[in-house]
UniProtKB/TrEMBL annotation:
<keyword id="KW-0645">Protease</keyword>
<feature type="transmembrane region" description="Helical">
    <location>
        <begin position="139"/>
        <end position="157"/>
    </location>
</feature>
<keyword id="KW-0802">TPR repeat</keyword>
<dbReference type="InterPro" id="IPR013105">
    <property type="entry name" value="TPR_2"/>
</dbReference>
<comment type="similarity">
    <text>Belongs to the peptidase S54 family.</text>
</comment>
<feature type="transmembrane region" description="Helical">
    <location>
        <begin position="166"/>
        <end position="184"/>
    </location>
</feature>
<dbReference type="GO" id="GO:0008233">
    <property type="term" value="F:peptidase activity"/>
</dbReference>
<keyword id="KW-0472">Membrane</keyword>
<feature type="domain" description="Peptidase S54 rhomboid">
    <location>
        <begin position="74"/>
        <end position="209"/>
    </location>
</feature>
<feature type="transmembrane region" description="Helical">
    <location>
        <begin position="113"/>
        <end position="133"/>
    </location>
</feature>
<keyword id="KW-0378">Hydrolase</keyword>
<keyword id="KW-1133">Transmembrane helix</keyword>
<feature type="repeat" description="TPR">
    <location>
        <begin position="332"/>
        <end position="365"/>
    </location>
</feature>
<dbReference type="GO" id="GO:0006508">
    <property type="term" value="P:proteolysis"/>
</dbReference>
<dbReference type="Pfam" id="PF07719">
    <property type="entry name" value="TPR_2"/>
</dbReference>
<keyword id="KW-0677">Repeat</keyword>
<keyword id="KW-0812">Transmembrane</keyword>
């Protein structure tokens, strides 16, 4: 008899290890990858703490951030990758804590493979809902976690006894509380939560009734895992090529390739990293090239406005700031940029209004808090 152990992926899916652990490891590993890419591009060790707290949004975009903008740009595979990416260390920590709390209950109730399928479908459904709802960008495991809650609600309803009702009530209350919190904080993907909840609920119904070609949950699990791995491989390959183009500073490689869209993405990545290094002249030059190449979305316009502001050219940046707010009115960082420009131009009341609106979306942003305090004395 062979003593050879099965491969790690097989043990993660079928072995005794709790399912939440490998899922958490994937999310944490991708976050670390984003941090390492950002640190490599920035080349500035003193910023390591800030990078660990929040990696470059450009790197996360290249890795597979979801939302309507990437989807329209043809990055359809991001509905698979977005549920495993996180925008900051607190975002990652909160979702991993929730995953470790909720997944064991679903795994005990439905079984290991069915729990994996519910989680995967909840994440995909949340990402698709975010696209359909028109959210500019979205990422995070919360849609998948809401899918797990949907499955718990279904189990409690089917069980029907006092324990089932208590389980259903608690899960529904927790989900409802988070929905309410999301409604009060527009920066949160409410559509992703709602879509994930419905996706998990539907997946639990289909799996437990053994409907369709995937009567064996292993077949559906392997299908979803294969699709996710293919999407992830495509995304990482895409990211690596773009980061390499950036790191070698080979503008002609992208520009002469005949792919203007790819060149614009390279310029945008350069602009984001240069701005992070406080090189606003370089960032302005690169973002101008990105916009000329077709990246005229809210993120690019906001970066050009902020670069102009930091270079003492606030009046020139105002038009871009206003266009960015019009395109993405619920993005706190974009409102903060316009607030700074209004303040620099002496438009005090408009600056105060934008600072307050930004703080409702990003309540712990130091620069926004400082801007409001300068004008009103409020925190």
């Amino acid at each position: 008899m062979s003593s050879r152990q099965p491969p790690l992926w097989h043990r993660a899916l079928f072995g005794p290890m709790p399912l939440a652990y490998p899922l958490a490891a994937v999310c944490a590993g991708l976050y670390l990858l984003a941090v390492l890419f950002t640190a490599w591009l920035a080349g500035s060790p003193e910023n390591l703490g800030r990078i660990l707290w929040q990696p470059s949004q450009g790197i996360l975009y290249a890795l597979g951030t979801g939302g309507q903008v990437p989807f329209i740009q043809g990055r359809v595979w991001t509905v698979f990758t977005a549920p495993y990416l996180h925008g900051s260390l607190p975002h990652l920590a909160l979702n991993l804590f929730s995953l470790l709390q909720v997944m064991p209950m679903v795994e005990r109730t439905y079984g290991r493979l069915r729990a994996f399928v519910i989680y995967a479908i909840g994440g995909i459904a949340g990402a698709v809902a975010s696209v359909l709802w028109g959210e500019v960008f979205s990422l995070g495991a919360s849609g998948a976690i809401f899918g797990l809650l949907g499955a718990i609600v279904l189990y409690g309803a089917r069980r029907g006894d006092a324990f089932g009702r208590a389980l259903m009530t608690n899960a529904a209350f927790w989900a409802g509380l988070n929905f309410l919190y999301g409604l009060l904080n527009p920066g949160i993907s409410n559509a992703g939560h709602f879509g994930g909840f419905l996706g998990g609920l539907a997946a639990a119904v289909l799996i437990t009734r053994r409907i369709g070609p995937f009567q064996d949950p292993r077949r559906l699990a392997f299908t979803l895992a294969s699709l996710a791995l293919l999407a992830l491989a495509f995304g990482l390959g895409n990211t690596t090529s773009r980061v390499w183009q950036f790191s070698t500073n080979d503008q002609s490689a992208a520009t002469n390739s005949g792919n203007e869209s790819a060149a614009a993405e390279v310029h945008m990545l350069r602009a984001l990293v240069l701005a992070q290094r406080d090189d606003y002249e370089g960032a302005l030059r690169e973002v101008d090239l990105a916009i000329k190449g077709g990246r005229d979305d809210a993120v690019a316009l906001n970066l050009r406005a902020w670069s102009l502001f930091k270079l003492g050219r606030a009046e020139e940046g105002l038009a871009d700031a206003e266009a960015a707010v019009k395109a993405a009115p619920d993005e706190g960082a974009i409102l903060d940029t316009r607030a700074h420009i209004y303040e620099a131009l002496g438009r005090r009341e408009e600056a105060i209004a934008d600072y307050k609106a930004a703080l409702r979306l990003i309540p712990n942003e130091p620069e926004t808090q400082a801007g409001l305090k300068r004008l009103t004395g409020e925190n």
